[in-house]
Amino acid sequence: MRVHRVLADAAADLLKSVFRERRVLDQQLATAFKQNPKWGKRDRAFIAETVYEVARWRRSLAFVADCEEISALCAAQWRRMGAGIPDWWNHGGATEADMEVREKQLPEQARAIRESVPDWLDQWAVDEMGEETWSRELAALNQRAPVYLRVNRLKCEPEEALDWLRREGLEVDPVPELADALVMAEGKVLPKPMRADGRIEIQDAGSQCIVPLLDARPGERIIDACSGAGGKALQLAAEMGNEGRIYAMDVEEAKLTELKRRARRAGASCIVVKPITGTTAHDFEHVADRLLIDAPCSGLGTLKRQPDLKWRLRPAAIERARAIQRELLGEYSRMLKPGGRLVYATCSILPSENREAVDTLLAAGGFKLLEELFISPAKQGCDGFYAAALLKEG
Predict the structure, then answer these.
(1) Does pTM surpass 0.85?
(2) What does the DSSP assignment read for 70-99?
(3) Per-residue DSSP letters for 210-229?
(4) How would you write the pLDDT of the chain (394 residues) with one tens digit per residue?
(5) Which residue of 158, 164, 274, 346 pairs with 151 in a disulfide if CB–CB is 3.0 to 4.6 A?
(6) Is the CB of residue 239 less than 8 Å from the CB of residue 150?
(7) Phi and psi at residue 189, in whole multiples of 5°?
(8) Active site residue: 74, 226, 347, 382, which one?
(9) Sign of CA dihedral 21, 295, 26, 87
C-alpha cells in the first residue's frame, strides 16, 4: 500500500473540517467523493479508512505519535494500516521507531486515552453506568460497524432478497432472531443501484428491534413523532402490509422530503408526512392507536458508525437532549388514544436518557410500563438502543 500525496492531503483536509470546524464526517466524506469523481475504489477506500480510524482513535494515535497535530495522527494511522509514513510527509510527531515503542505502552494508559474519548465524556459515562459497564460498552463501540440490511416485505420476501444479493456477488447472511435482517460481510458496502432498488434498506439491527415493540396492526393509525428520514416508518409500513395510516412527523422538512422519496421507492403508500408545528400535539390529540417517540438524544449508541460524534458532543448537548426527551413524552403523549401503546426509544446507552426519562412520565400518572428493551453494543454487536413500551390508561 502506497500513500499518494493528493490522497494524504485530502484526508488531512477532511479531518481538519471535522476536528476544527465540527463538521459531520460522513457528510464531508460524501461531498469530497462527489467533488472528485476520478478517485478510484482504492483511493476512496484509503481516504475513508484514514479519516474514520483517525476519528475513532484520535487520542490513542496522539499518544503513539507524541503529537496532537492532524498530520501526526494521519502518520500514526498509516503506520497501523501498514502503509508506512512517506518521507515527504512532514508530521512533526515521533519517528516510526518511537511510535512502535509507544504503541506497546498504550495499554498502560488511562481508558480515555487508550479507548480514545474526551475526559469529560469518560467521567460522565462512568458516573451514570459504572466503570465495568462503560468499559465494556466503550470497547465495543470502538469496533467497526457491520452493514445491516432490512428486507422490504412490500417488495419481496427475505429468502428472495438473499438469493438476489448473492446472485449479484454480495456476501450476506441472515441475522438470527430478526426475520427481515441481513448482514453484509465485514468491510463490504452496498452498491448504489441496490440501495435505490426498493427491495432492501440499510438499517442497523438494533434499530430494527424497536418497531416490533409497537405491536402495530393493519388498519391502525400510527404516529411516528420524530421520524427523521423515516427508517422506522418504512419498517412499520411493511409490518402493517401497507394497510392503515402512518403519520411521519419531524421538525426538519428536508428529512421529510427524503422520507417521501424513500416511501415512493419502497411502495409504502400508507405513509403521510406531517411537518411538526406548535399545534401538532393539539391537532392530533387522541388520534393514534400507537405512538412512537424516537427521541433526539446524545447518539452515544452509534459511535461505531459515527466516531466523530464524540468530538462534536458537549455536556450541554446531553443536558439539552434530556430536557427535550421529557418535554416530548409529556406533550406528544396527548396524541395517543386511551388504551393505546406508546414506544419511547433512543440510540443512547445513558440511563439518564432512557429509563430515567420514562420514570418521569410514569411519575406523572396515566401510563403503565409494559416492557423494556436494552440493545447493548457489547452483547449484540450492533448500535446501542433503548426502548420502552407503555400503555396509556383510561
Answers:
(1) yes
(2) HHHHHHHHHHHHT----TT----S--HHHH
(3) TGGGG---TT-EEEETT-TT
(4) 789 999 999 999 999 999 999 999 999 999 999 999 999 999 999 999 999 999 999 999 999 999 999 999 999 999 999 999 999 999 989 999 999 999 999 999 999 999 999 999 999 999 999 999 999 999 999 999 899 999 999 999 999 999 999 999 999 999 988 999 999 998 788 888 888 899 999 999 999 999 999 999 999 999 999 999 999 999 999 999 999 999 999 999 999 999 999 999 999 999 999 999 999 999 999 999 999 999 999 999 999 999 999 999 999 999 999 999 999 999 999 999 999 999 999 999 999 999 999 999 999 999 999 999 999 999 999 999 999 999 999 7
(5) 158
(6) no
(7) -125, 160
(8) 347
(9) positive
Reduced DSSP (H G I as helix, E B as strand, rest coil) percent helix, strand, coil of the chain, to 5: 50, 15, 35
User: What sign has the CA pseudo-torsion 317, 320, 322, 328?
Assistant: negative
347 part of the active site: yes
Please tell me the distance from the alpha carbon of residue 120 to that of residue 341, in angstroms, as a whole number.
Answer: 37
Helix (H, G, I), strand (E, B) or coil at 36: coil
Please report the beta strands in 142-214, taking only residues with DSSP state E, as ranges in sequence order: 148-151, 172-175, 178-184, 200-202
What distance lies between CA 109 and its chain's CA centroid? Answer: 28
CA–CA distance, 103 with 101 (Å, rounded to integer): 5
The sign one gets for the Cα dihedral 262, 268, 269, 270 is negative
Of 360, 351, 354, the closest CA to residue 333 belongs to 360
Give the three-class secondary structure for 358: helix
Burial call 21-34: b when 16+ CB within 10 Å, e when fewer: eeeebeebbeebee
Grid coordinates of 327: 418535554
Answer yes or no: are the C-beta atoms of 224 and 249 closer than 8 Å.
yes
Cell 433526539, located at residue: 296
